[in-house]
Amino acid sequence: MHNYIQQYINGEWVDSTSTETIEVINPATEKVIGKISAGSKEDVDRAVEAARAAFPSFSRMDIEDRIKLLENIAKEYENRKDDLVKVITEELGSPITRSEQIQYEMGLQHFKKAAELLKTFEFTEQRGNTLIKKEAIGVAGLITPWNFPTNQPSTKLASAFAAGSTVVLKPAAMTPFAAIILAEIFDKAGLPKGVFNLVNGSGSTIGDAISSHPGIDFVSFTGSGPVGTKIMENAAQDIKKVSLELGGKSPLVILKDANVKDAARTAILNVAMNTGQVCTAATRTIIPKSMHDEFIEAVKEALPDFPVGDPQDKNTFMGPQVSKEQWETVQSYINKGTEEGATLVAGGPGKPDGLDKGYFSKITVFTNVKNDMTIAQEEIFGPVMSILTYETIDEAIEIANDTKYGLAGYVFGQNPDELFKVASNIRAGQITVNNPKTDFSAPFGGFKQSGIGREWGDYGIEEFLEPKAIIGMPS
Ligand code: NAP
Ligand code: MG
Q: What is the pLDDT of residue 370?
């Protein structure tokens, strides 16, 4: 049992002013695995006060020392590998191999990348008579979702520390234990007190208090659109800057010269990874009409290579949905797909055979999907693929862009001109061509209703900086 009913404020674990707690459930077993404090607005006040007090000296800390600090954090993070992998597997239901290779690894890379980038990052620029100086934005409030328990906080935290910002973090109440380990890592790595503050609790109390707090200068949020709107409304009251990483309905365009078997595997991988609980999931697979039957066969043939089941089993590809509520949402979309006339190719409603305990879904594939169907327009956040067909590349691009979202896009095939044409014309923040390695310095964020601002790498650091122009200083 993980019982962490304290908050981490000003470099120490302290009691909340609230005695209420929130239970945390392992979604694979449906068992309670621990609890956290439900937190209070007063806890947020204390955390903001500590972050404000720490800001003047932390924002002026030598760059060399800040690099050392980020390197220490990366080292301590590596020392806690086993604990992180274990806890993410338990609280999220992520299969243990994925917890290690993806969840753990992504969280680590942001700290390493920030340390590396700081070595050459230009905080000042002379333009003629004007000096442009980039200064830390102040106290940042960070609100993160449950789908990547260390990656989501880490990208924000690494950028904030690199820029010299101090922070108050509220992680998702469903997956709080990985963030508690992060607090222990920062403590061990020698982060000055007050730079990092962790307040656990619900979004409606703690998240709301953060986004409306006058002592916070910048809110960086990742999660759903409706909550993003609330955060902007709160932040508007005192003109706080906001950065929002919201949802997506990303297209995967398969070119006609693609290897069909490889394309089918890529499509399954990109929709079922993390049980479909990925904001950049490729949920609309847009294929040439002439490839349709062959593609469907290839998908059916490949599906057994993506086993669903116990997250503790090293061979499992896909674990459960994070919660009962999320499972029910996914089920309702699967039913909606059938109701609106799409053709079920694989999966469907209910739990996979033999998995009665735990919030498990089937990897579900629909074809004959029209882009105006609910399953093609709304973010499902589950392993549900919608297959749509095209005759010309221009039609593929039109379908790809017929969405309110613009977080990511994928293109798979061989012809370099066509790959580039599709990549250039999809209106989204990050396009993946074939299956490259993750680039942790590439900007990450959305066009359209997928959000505002960018994370990762130098673009991520810039979000936590304010440019100041000093004009006409005598030299
Ligand atoms: P969510 O409700 O937006 O939660 C994200 C974070 O915001 C959590 O820490 C949450 O706290 C907090 N929050 C909730 N209400 C808040 C409020 N009024 N003010 C400030 N913060 C608040 O997302 P979710 O419920 O976890 O997931 C719902 C849907 O969001 C998913 O189905 C998916 O479509 C989308 N989503 C997108 C991403 C992404 O990476 N873009 C990630 C996760 C989810 P608590 O949950 O702890 O109460
Ligand atoms: Mg919620």
A: 97
